[in-house]
Amino acid sequence: MSNVAGEVVLITGAARGIGADAARRLAARGARVALVGLEGDLLEQVAAECGNGARAWEADVTDREALDAAVAGVVEHFGGIDVVIANAGIAATGFVRSMDPAAFERVVEVNLLGVWRTVRACLPQLVATRGHVLTVSSLAAVVHIPGNAAYSASKAGVEAFANALRAEVRHLGVTVGVAHFSWIATDMVNSADEHPVFGPMRSGMPGLAGKKYPVAAVGEALVRGVERRSRVVHVPGWIGPLKLVRSLLPRLVERQAAKQVPDADRAVAADIAARGLEESSRPVGPGGAAAVKR
C-alpha cells in the first residue's frame, strides 16, 4: 500500500459528486490535490474545503488546449503529477433511434475521449514519477441496458482503454486501474431519475440492479484504489464476480427489456412531442448542463 501523503493527485470532474468527495478524502490523507473540471466557482469551493494547498483549474476535458494548459499549470505549481483520476463524465438517456444525436455524441466525447485526453496529457509526468492512472468506468460497461447506449458504449471504451494502457506502460513503472460503479446517488443519477420515461425504468429495476449507493462509499473506494495502486475498484463488490459472467448478461437484459421497451418507446415519442428532442435527451444534472454549454 502506498502512502499518498505528499503525492500530487490530479482529479477531473472534481467540482461535485465522486470527484469532489475523493479529493476531500485524499487531501485529508495528506495528498496535494489538483482539481480540474467545469463549474469554476464550485471547483474553488472544493479546493478550499480540501485545504492542504489544494488548487483548482477550470478546463473542459473535450478541449485539448485547455486541458493541456491546466496540466501544465498543475506541473508548474506542484512540480509534477503522481496520480491521475480520470473521473469526468456525463450521461444522457434516450433510445438510439430517437435521441438527440448531439447529446449522444457529447456523452462519448466527454466520457471516452475526455479520459484519453486527460491520460495522454499526464503520461509524461506519470512516467517520470512511476505513477498511477485510475480511470472511472461503470457497471454500464458490463451491463448494457436500453436507454443507456451512449453511456454504456463510452464506459466500455474506458475499460478497454485502461486495459490496453496497462500493458503499454507496465515496463515504465506506471500502474493503471479501472473503476466500475453501480448507480451512485450523485446529482447525475438523481437528475436522471427525474426523466419522465427513463427515471421510472431505472428506479423500477428489480433488487440490487436498481439500488443506489452513497457517494461516500465510492469516494473511499477510490482513495483505497489509489493507495493500493489497484487494477480494479468495484462499488458494490458484487460487480467483480458479475464481470466473470458478462457474456451471459445481454440475453438477460433483452429478456427483461422485452417487457418494458415497447411501452417506453411510445412514451419517449410522446415526451419528445411534448418537450422537444433536445430537452427529452439533454445530458442530465448540473454537470451535464455545464458540459453542453461549451
Low-confidence stretches: none
Shape: globular
Q: Total helix count?
A: 12
SS-based structural class? alpha/beta
Share of helix among residues?
A: 40-55%
CATH fold group: Rossmann fold
Supply the CATH class: Alpha Beta
Number of strands: 7
- Name the CATH superfamily assignment: NAD(P)-binding Rossmann-like Domain
| Overall pLDDT level | 92
Spatial gap, N to C terminus: 39 Å
Topology:
Elements: E1 8-12, H1 17-28, E2 32-37, H2 40-50, E3 55-58, H3 64-78, E4 83-86, H4 101-129, E5 132-136, H5 149-169, E6 175-181, H6 187-192, H7 198-203, H8 215-228, E7 232-235, H9 239-243, H10 249-275, H11 277-280, H12 285-292
Parallel strand pairs: 1-2, 1-4, 2-3, 4-5, 5-6, 6-7
Helix pairs in contact: 1-2, 1-8, 3-4, 4-5
Describe the structure in your own words.
- The longest helix has 29 residues, at 101-129.
- Helix 1 (17-28) packs across helix 8, helix 3 packs parallel to helix 4 and helix 4 packs parallel to helix 5.
- With 294 residues, this protein is an alpha/beta fold.
- It has a 7-stranded parallel beta sheet, with helices on both faces.
- Strand 1, helix 1 (17-28) and strand 2 form a beta-alpha-beta unit.
- The radius of gyration is 19 Å and the shape is globular.
- It has 12 helices and 7 strands.
